[in-house]
Amino acid sequence: MADTLLAPIDGADRREVGGITLEIVRATGTSRVKRAIYPPGFRWSTHMKPVTGTDLCMHGHVGFLARGRVHIEYGDGCIVEYIAPAVVVIEPGHDGWVVGDEPAVLIEFDFEGDTIRRLDMPEHHRHE
Description:
The chain is mainly beta. The chain has a single domain, classed as Sandwich (Jelly Rolls). The protein has a six-stranded antiparallel β-sheet, with no helix packed on it. A three-stranded antiparallel β-sheet has the order 6-5-8, with no helix packed on it. The chain is globular.
């Protein structure tokens, strides 16, 4: 039986970026629902830094980690780990990687280039 969590999503814009499989579906206006499948061994600073040209991921992520384990390390040294099932809020200014031998599957909600403002996130993570 096929794993429905990894099955193609009808009507989604499917793309591969830095080893991540992304499927994006427009909800309303600029809101989108995305499924990101991060393979075992994925690390943002290794696989995405060359694509984005920034030292850290400056995108904000809000969603649900449906499978896997993700380690997040912010520029200020703050560390957070998410283990599925978990609600995820990752502020801009982080590196991150998959922990273990299974892919991490993140169902994410965003607003294209306006996610940080629309979700009232800080521009950069600040350890409190």
